[in-house]
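Follow-up to my post from last week.
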Amino acid sequence: MTPTKVHQLGIIALIVFTVAAPWVLPLFVDSFWVDIYSEMLIWSLLAASVNLLFGYVGLLSFGQALFFGMGMYGVAIGIAKMGLGFWPAFGFGTFLATAMAAVAGVFAVRLTWHYFAIITVVFSLIFYFTALSWKPLTGGDDGLPFSMPPIFTFGEDVKLSLTNTTIQYYFIALTVGLCYTLLAIVLRSPLGRAFRTVKENDMRASLIGLNVYLVRLTAFICAGFIAGVAGSLFAFFGRYASASYMFYHVSGEAVVWAIIGGVGTLLGPVVGTSLLIILREELSHVWEHYLLLVGSIVIIVVIFAPRGLGGLWHGLVNRLASRNDGTLDSSEETKL
Amino acid sequence: MDVVIALGMNGIVWGLIIALIALGLSIIFGLLDIINIAHGDFFMVGTVLAWFVLQTTGNYWLAFFIVPIIGFGIGALIEYSVIQPIKNAAALSIVATFGLSIILQESVRATYGAAPTRLVPPITGTIPMFGLEYEIYRLFAAAVSIFAIALFFGFLHRTKFGTWMRAVRFDPEMATAMGIPARKIYMVTFAIGFAMAALGGVVAAPITTVDFQGGVDILPFCFMAVIIGGLGNLEGTVAAAVMLAFFEGVMASFFDPTIARIGSLCLMSIVLLIRPHGIFAGATR
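User reply:
Got it. Predicted complex:
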């Protein structure tokens, strides 16, 4: 089997598992794991937005929680304050996050390296404090709860709403799946190649005629969009919005998930997020201070496997394949 | 008007303590090229160690000597085990120090507990100043911070080791070629950074609270001082810390403290974008 085939099989397995999860998971574990799995899918999108910036364009953002929070508030404010329906609120949340990313990006991508990381933190902190103090609109510390409007109504009886857990699960899984598909398409397009070129060497990228600033800005807006979708979904999932999700610790967690899963691989963030959330759910009851383990894992991964689990997996598959064929498959392009 | 003076004074005292902590952050950045997300937690560890010294010996004054030494030791250990192995992956240093921050916070929560404590200052009492009664301990705290900062600059400019530190920062390869033990310099610099943050913790513990999350609020403030003063510009860091804290103190007497914080964060973004080397760039180098 070629590495490409192995990866395709992996993706198919993941899709099958995701589709079957509401029936399969309760057979083996408690049914609340279905909820946790949808939570994992949502958070993995936030990690994916970090990954898009760091893994493909080479910009480490420590402020993606800002766009996540914008998505959350867009949905919550849209429903609770403006009386929007389901789809307009979803659109409003995503739009707010994307617009925020566009505005922040214009300034942020002028900087690189450490300066970029710092300015993204600063932007997210500014809006974190604003959300905390602007109580009438955001609810401050207490958060802003709302009641769920139906997705779709037909007459009096036919009503589709996320209050049904199965519908909620499939809605989340489908949206997350769409985002990853979109991401895969973008990454395979000439734009995706431009991303990687800028990451490898921004000087050469500009010499071959790429507008490095514009490429980085585009990536930043895409990442903001993904984080915004994640935030909107999470608002629907938890039925509230809170400023605490905009704090830099949330951004930091997303960076950790992305790094452990493997930056520069499409599905690495899913793996990293799932793993750490499973760890949290399983260990936090048993051992109150399980975060000690999380911190250690982060440091160990950074030191010994800076490309994360995804990197290890690719290395393993490629090595096995080269042992069988006698050739090393080095097609970076097909990497997923 | 009294409130403005009191908050302005508090701001200057607080600014001097922050300057001490931020100086540690600044030397770590300037020399090791590492953004230390865990620096606020170094401060927090200092406050907890001060509390611990007070509990075991009953004498707070001892903490001023013991805690920086313990901090130096922990700092050297962390540099050896975490920072050294990732020296070649600078971008990931932020992630590694984030992991470090999680570990420090959680180990303090596991040992010290989650409940914040207030410490009684070792000097109580007030003296009249500018028409109001001002706490003596705060003045003492400011004096200790100034003394420690002066000591550090003396070390940096007057001793052989300090000269080596400046040499390694200027050009690590050339310094190594001339026989300066760069590896050792990195370790000592990081350890000094930790010790300064820990001393800041001892000084500040009776003014704030001892809490395992105490570093979370300090960190953005230290970063603001370092950025506005200019990354790696040590004198600039000190000046910016005092100015910022004074500014926030005075702002806080007119508005909500959160608004004051937003104001200084906005100021910091403007500085980052317009003068990424700080507002004092060109004045010193």
